[in-house]
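Handoff note, outgoing to incoming analyst
You'll be picking up this chain. Sequence as last confirmed:
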Amino acid sequence: MRYLLETKGLTKRFGRGERAQTAVLDVSLHVPEGAVYGLLGPNGAGKSTMLKMVTGMLQPSGGEMLFEGEPWRREHLYRIGSLVETPPLYPNLTARENLRVRTTLLGIPEERIGEVLETVDLTNTGRKRAGQFSLGMKQRLGIALALLARPRLLVLDEPTNGLDPIGIEELRGLVRSLPGQGVTVVVSSHVLTEVAHTADLVGIIVEGRLAHEGRIDAGCDLEALFMDVCRKTAGKTADAGRASWERRAAAEGRASREKGGVR
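Most recent structure output, in case you need it:
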């Protein structure tokens, strides 16, 4: 199977020395070309950190990334579109004007504007300014910006946050349509029902580690799978923490006895 994006042992730590915090540890993802890959995990599990490394916003502390089979380079960002956090919009400009700013900066033909507006269903917004858009319309305009340069990979971080049911359904249809246009999608979320309707396969990150990766089979109960993976991982972490505490306690006990002259 050809992977458009692959990570091997990817790790990210913040800080140095004893105060260093590990956000992502030894994560190896496999994203097939032409798929929608759902990246799941509880809040604070490391999903956004992973996506920020993939999109060049953070530098990994260890491991490697492969894009189209090659070691990841900043030049690859020309083929990676992303919507991470808030859409980068000018609120006083229309949808078309927002897109024209980007095409001018990147040297993209202006006819591409009409194509992406049609893809995200924003062709009829006219002179309405982006600041007056609903949250769902802003998300779709952010995706339009990310699609302008015809990326091979689109990265979306929690795109349905704050959307009403209609906005969620519209965004779901948009994401599902993209592989047919040659765009592979990685979407992070903690809304399991949306991922179940959208993704072809999932990776589940718990406490910074990849605890599960696999395809979503027909009839799969994603919620049950997610909860089972989270519970098992939490149990392993607790066992490891307890073993570590016992080792430290034993070492401190030995040191105390030796200091007191007891052998």
